[in-house]
Specification:
Strand order of the largest sheet: 2-1-4-3
Number of helices: 5
CATH topology of the largest domain: Helix Hairpins
Radius of gyration: 41 Å
Helix content: over 70%
Largest sheet: 4 strands, mixed
CATH class of the largest domain: Mainly Alpha
Strand content: under 5%
Distance between the termini: 38 Å
Order of helices and strands: HHHEEHEEH
Number of domains: 2
CATH architecture of the largest domain: Orthogonal Bundle
Amino acid sequence: MLPDLQLAVRLQELDNRVTELTREISALPKHVAEIEKKLESHERKLEADRAALSANQKERKKMEGEIQLQEQKISKLRGQMLEAKTNEVYRAFQNEIEFCEKEIRRAEDRILELMGESEPLDKNVKAAESALKQEKVQVDTEKQQALARTAEDKKALEQIQQERGQIVSRLGPPVYRQYERIRKGRRGIAVAEAVDGRCNACHMAMRLQFFQDLKKGDQVLYCESCSRILYYNPPVAFEDLTGESATALPG
């Protein structure tokens, strides 16, 4: 294969890898941002459940205090009933006691409701706390992995850029100019392999004479359909793969 063609093929391989690494380096921070956003959402949900549980407990204490207050009132009213001089006053104390008892029943009913509400809230909080603890560990692990992967990718990218510079310096300027022009116009792919008489990029069939000229490998040829630089890899013989001479099969 012509040296310029070999260099162009290697240059395409490097540029493909640069594209992959650049895409990955760009995607990793987005991935980290997504898992952090998800973690923050779970943290907010946990705080909301904690706040609801705290409000529930506060209201229960308030109702318990209300019951205690009404019981104190009843005790005081019953003491005052003993000193009532008339039936009218006695009935007035009775009515007040009945009202206090009604308030106690209302508070007790509300406490039962709050107890029913607090049980699932308490379970949710405990489950969320446990899940969040594991999730934080997972997020921290993924962040560290992303940082390490980014560092590796940047190092690999730097090495590739160095090799790319060396190849560009050895590649004939006309071929390199064509390579860059085609790469920019063909979504980063400037070089394609010819397989079974077709361009492996645009899949268009080649003229027989053109394909024969390409097989010679003594000049840089461009696909007559998509204009990409073409190269041809001859099939590898069986003896080349095994290192042994092919023997005739018995007739």
